[in-house]
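Shipment paperwork, digital attachment
Item: protein structure file
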Amino acid sequence: MAYLTFDEYQGLGFTQITDADTFSQHEAAAETQIDITTQFFYNADYDANSLVDDLAGGQWQVFRAKQFKRAVALQCDYFDEVGADTPIGIANQDLSSIEIGRTHVQANSNVNATNFGKTGLANGVVAILAQIGLMSRAVSYR
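Attachment content:
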């Protein structure tokens, strides 16, 4: 099950992606990158936490689930904007200079400044995930 449908994406006020097929491609890639970063917090196969149950839960669970969906939507927009949906694809999109013979062209592209480390996640997505507690892991001392 996808974390976010195209209708939900539009319902959250996101309008950058207008094609459902493009959205599905970006959503699947966003799901993979977010799962890796959050240690599969809402992954259905892992079954430790349920996004559906959290949307029907208490105030904190509903808030966390809605913000998680917002983060997925934002990541889909990020993938669409940079024109790639993998960390390697994003790195390749950040061509900063090229030299052909005596001609040297240098762009001021800085995609990596909007990317959290080498994760392929947008900085805004990481900020949301951190605020809802999905970016930190701790070991019990008891």
